[in-house]
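Could you please consider the sequence and fold appended to this message?
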Amino acid sequence: DQYMTVAMEEGHVIFQYNLGSGVATMKSDNTYHDGEWHHVEVARQQRNGVLKIASETIQAESPGNVKQFSSTPETMFFGGYPGEHDYIDITNEDFNGCIDNIVMSSVAVDLSKSKESIDTAPGCPIKVASLVSFDKSAPGYVKYDSPDGNGLQLVFKFKTEEPDGLILYTSTRNQNSYLSLSLAESALILRAAPGGELTTG
C-alpha cells in the first residue's frame, strides 16, 4: 500500500506517507483549529520527510529500504476523498474549513480549475462553524456577529423533517431593515426589507 496524506486530527496536523515498506508519520505538537490561517509545508525526499507549521519542524524517516513510489500517482484529492478509503492510519472524515495558496513543486495550484469538485464553494467565509442541531422540544438559536460590509455570501447545508422553521434572521437595531431565510410548507423563502421576497414554492 502506497500513499501520501496531510490531515488534521483533533486539531493536530499530521503528514504521513507509505512507500510500501511502512508508514512515516509526522504530527504537530500544537493544535491549529482556531479559525486562523496557518502556513503548512510538507516535503519528502526519498525516505525522509518533514512537516513545517508555525514554529514547529517535525522530521521522520520511513522504515525499510524502499525510497520511491512504484509509480507516479495520477490523482490528488484536497479536502476529502470520494467515498471511503481502506487505510486504517488515515481519517475518513472530510476537512471542514478553507484551503488556499497551494504550491506544488514550485508551481501554484488553482483549485478552481480542478478536474472535479464536490460540495465546495469559492472563497472562504469569515468564520467556519461546526455542525449544530436543533430539537423541536427545546427551541434554540445560535447568535453570531454579522460580517462587516454591505455584501453577504452564505453557504450551508441543512436537513430536517419539519416543513416550517426559521433558518436565518438578521436586522438593524430598529428592525426597519432585515433579512430572513425560512421554511414555510416545505418551500424556502428569502425575505429582505427593503427588497422583497424570493421563494422556491
About this structure: The chain has two domains: 3-113, 125-201.
